[in-house]
């Protein structure tokens, strides 16, 4: 892909209405047609999804249909998040932690044609762990990525990019504390990531987290690159309660 201008979208989690509103704000024309979406991106721009397309929100199938269509048409890139992996694993019959968010997606997918279900899981399984773009000046990965793993196709790079890393510590809720790789990042590439919902985008060193917790009633945010401007739209409602208490997240991490 030759494009060097990207609109990078944070964790969508099935929030289709907000995604359509955000795309309109970014200048994408979208028409809903029977069986899919017709999309006209602004000249020279490519949409890039940071993963966690699915689970917790109201329309996992709708988001999958839109993103899958755009990726096939060469209009979008997408990397997988831990929730996308989890849904795919559940479909394969692997043992996964059952959560309300996953069950909601499985119920939504059960109403879809079997062919769409199969295509969706093939799509999620086909995604590269991360993208290294603009001649190494831009990296996108769901949970971020330390510089030593940029461009690596190893299992380690995939595990980090999709699920991040936790420390041995537990927080007051008993959840493992996520390691703050960005605090030690000194790389040249701008790393754009999501995974940990925050009240507002967080720039740190040459990294930015743009997961602003739409599904928890926050916002859905895009980063325009190379402009480095964020554009966001508010959630229409609170779709899911955050286990990690996203309202408090900015205080939990000591950056
Ligand atoms: Mn997420």
The gist of it:
The chain is an alpha/beta fold and 255 residues long. The protein has 7 helices and 14 strands.
Walk me through what this model shows.
It is a single chain. The protein is of the alpha/beta class and 255 residues long. The protein has a single domain, classed as Purple Acid Phosphatase, chain A, domain 2, CATH 3.60.21.10. The protein is 27% helix and 24% strand. It is built from seven helices and 14 strands. The protein has helices at 16-25, 60-72, 82-91, 100-110, 114-126, 155-163, 249-252, and strands at residues 5-9, 29-33, 36-40, 45-49, 76-78, 131-133, 138-140, 166-170, 176-178, 190-193, 202-204, 207-209, 219-225, 229-234. The strands form four sheets. Strands 5-4-1-13-14 form a five-stranded mixed sheet. A five-stranded mixed sheet has the order 6-7-10-12-11, with no helix packed on it. A hairpin with a 2-residue loop joins strand 11 (202-204) and strand 12. Helix 3 (82-91) crosses helix 5. The longest helix has 13 residues, at 60-72. The model is unreliable at 248-255 (pLDDT under 50).
Strands, helices and their partners?
Elements: E1 5-9, H1 16-25, E2 29-33, E3 36-40, E4 45-49, H2 60-72, E5 76-78, H3 82-91, H4 100-110, H5 114-126, E6 131-133, E7 138-140, H6 155-163, E8 166-170, E9 176-178, E10 190-193, E11 202-204, E12 207-209, E13 219-225, E14 229-234, H7 249-252
Helix pairs in contact: 3-5
Fourth-level CATH superfamily: Metallo-dependent phosphatases
Widest sheet: strand order?
A: 5-4-1-13-14
Query: Helical percent range?
Result: 25-40%
Number of β-strand runs = 14
- Number of DSSP helices? 7
Tell me the major beta sheet.
5 strands, mixed
Strand content: 15-25%
Order of helices and strands: EHEEEHEHHHEEHEEEEEEEH
Question: What small-molecule ligands were found?
Answer: manganese (II) ion
**CATH topology grouping:** Purple Acid Phosphatase, chain A, domain 2
Question: How many domains would you count in the coordinates?
Answer: 1
CATH class category label: Alpha Beta
- Radius of gyration (CA) equals 17 Å
User: In terms of structural class, how would the helical and strand content be classed?
Assistant: alpha/beta
Oligomer: single chain
Give the overall pLDDT as a whole number: 92
- How would the global form be characterised? globular
**What is the CATH-assigned architecture?**
4-Layer Sandwich
């Amino acid at each position: 892909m030759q494009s060097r201008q990207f609109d990078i979208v944070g964790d969508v989690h099935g929030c289709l209405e907000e995604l359509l509103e955000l795309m309109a704000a970014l200048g994408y024309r979208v028409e809903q047609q029977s069986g899919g979406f017709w999309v006209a991106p602004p000249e020279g721009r490519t949409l890039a999804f940071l993963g966690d397309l699915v689970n917790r929100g109201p329309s996992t199938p709708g988001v999958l249909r839109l993103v899958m269509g755009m990726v096939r048409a060469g209009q979008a890139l997408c990397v997988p998040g831990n929730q996308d992996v989890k849904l795919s694993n559940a479909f394969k019959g692997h043992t996964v932690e059952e959560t309300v968010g996953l069950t909601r997606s499985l119920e939504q997918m059960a109403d879809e044609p079997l062919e769409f279900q199969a295509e969706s899981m093939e799509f999620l399984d086909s995604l590269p762990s991360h993208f290294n773009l603009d001649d190494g000046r831009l990296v996108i990965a769901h949970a971020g990525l330390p510089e030593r793993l940029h461009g690596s196709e190893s299992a380690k790079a995939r595990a980090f990019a999709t699920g991040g890393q936790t420390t041995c510590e537990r927080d007051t809720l008993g959840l493992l504390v996520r390691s703050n790789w960005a605090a030690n990042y000194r790389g040249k590439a701008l790393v754009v990531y999501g995974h940990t919902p925050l009240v507002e985008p967080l720039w740190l060193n040459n990294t930015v987290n743009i997961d602003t917790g739409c599904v928890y009633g926050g916002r859905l945010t895009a980063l325009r690159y190379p402009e480095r401007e964020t554009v966001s739209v508010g959630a229409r409602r609170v779709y899911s309660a955050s286990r990690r208490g996203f309202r408090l997240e900015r205080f939990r991490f000591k950056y």
